[in-house]
Amino acid sequence: MAAESIAAGDPTGWFERLYAAAEAGETAVPWDRGEPSRFFTQWAVTRARAGAGQRAVVVGCGLGDDAEFVAGFGFETVAFDISPTAIATARRRFPGSAVRYQTADLLDPPPEWHQAYDLVVESLILQALPDPPRRDAIARLGGLVAPGGTLIVIARAREPEQAVHGPPWALTRAEIDALGGGGLEPVTIEDLTDSQMPWPRRWRAEFRRPLPGSART
Ligand SMILES: C[S@@+](CC[C@H](N)C(=O)[O-])C[C@H]1O[C@@H](n2cnc3c(N)ncnc32)[C@H](O)[C@@H]1O
Predict the structure, then answer these.
(1) Which of 27, 117, 160, 201 is buried most deeply by CB count within 10 Å?
(2) Cα–ligand 1 centroid distance for 155 (angstroms)
(3) Closest C-alpha residue for ligand 1 atom 4
(4) 26: DSSP letter
(5) Correct CATH for 33-208 of 3.40.50.150, 3.40.50.720, 3.40.50.1360, 3.30.70.360
């Protein structure tokens, strides 16, 4: 599905087709864990973020597990995905959820989302996009982070000389560093290994947008 979609010049069109096929019982969603990403939950618990009075956005939220976890910290949470079927399924899975699920495209976000979120969560989206449009997606992600806000990114990691035939396309350190453009500063960039995973290396990268007038740390 991905190969056909990319060859047709539509690198994101296959996500909806895949979720719709899964909904029809014809396939499984390969990244569906049925629970939040532990690379994300470990970070969130360690950083003990209290979200009351703050806004979070979960990018490419899929079936909603990460978004529900984020909302549990008290953030006013928006979660979006390019696939309307994924959003419909997330709403159905979590009736009465405090999360505002909506269909949207990271590559063309609503203007009112510009620098609007105290916490921006991206898990496995960039690695699911070829380049183009990955570079554009990197810039768009940073644009969602409010002054004083945080971006957390989870992705497969690789060395530049390591060939990958995606999706997914594991990210190089240079691609992670590129998230620091547009006024974001790196806080921690972890290169993690989990030998239980089919692809053991993962980036977990945290960036922040300094408050205006604050000294660089
Ligand atoms: C590999 S899945 C990861 C899903 C989820 N974040 C996770 O960690 O399990 C990539 C997700 O990003 C969504 N996606 C891809 N391109 C997108 C875009 N341009 N805007 C919003 N969502 C997008 C896909 O529909 C899919 O749900």
Answers:
(1) 117
(2) 12
(3) 62
(4) S
(5) 3.40.50.150
